Fold this protein.
Amino acid sequence: MTQTVPTLTPLVRAYDYLLLDLDGCVWVGGTPTRDAPRALEALRSGGKRIAFVTNDTRMSAEEYVRKLWALGFRASLEEVVTVGGALQHHLSDRHGARRASAYVIGTPAIFRHVSDAGLRVVNGMPEAPHAEVVVAAGHDALTFEELKIATQALLGGADFVAAGRDRTFPMPDGMWPGTGALVAALEYASGRTASSVGKPQPEIFLTALDRLGPGRALVVGDRLDVDLAGAHAAGLDGAIVLSGATTRAEAEAAGAASAPGERGGTPARPPEQPPRPVAIAHDLAELILGEPPPVAAPPQAPPDPPELPPAGWGRAAG
């Protein structure tokens, strides 16, 4: 018995490939969003190519591939574009040749990227407060000591590089503070402004496009200020799913649409005029397959209480 391949929505059929955010789009914490594995399999069956583009600094590209497979998604290393890779490229270009010293806030994956870029990581050394570069990426075990040493290095003139500006990211128990919260604290303490290499900067999307080749791309994510703004900066169309950080009211309030750009998206516009998403969907299943979430049945009214018998009913005569 042959299995029926789900039909893609007309919107998705108009694109050659999709650039998908991970947190709040493909999964929340360790759980896929509703029917996301089936939706992505439908994309592949329909001849669409996929790239996973993430600002999450907690894992390496190899670790993301393993997580995707564990949650029921097919994925290759070539399809995963992380902010850590963009960070490594940025640092190598600007500081790698001279083996600059770096104080790093981040996960082990970020430490590896900084080291692989050619910088000398000086965490735990006496010279840490005098590092030439401060690299900031959110992680779950952030301490005051890290903030203190990074602030001291920045006040001493260190170059300031951030892995992104995501204020929050969705987890099963609610929103958690992201790299942007850490960066804001360091900017306020030092009076310095970080150079950000993740979304909404366009470079990470352009890296994905270089891997995928020529064609028309749709960016899909859950944040207006990161995913949609980044798509816009790269000249690409963007769609918003409501399975993460953005509400429907916020998505519908995004700015007016404009004419397609040279990559099939919208041309650059001032930051005060946010782009309008080409689509707003509850989740990937609705965006890709046209399947909205089931509507919960309205609660049933409790039955009327039985009528009480007349007063004196059943009393013995006498």
About this structure: Confidence is low (pLDDT under 50) at residues 256-271. The longest strand covers residues 49-54. The domain at 10-55+200-289 is CATH 3.40.50.1000 (Rossmann fold). The chain is about 30% helix and 15% strand.
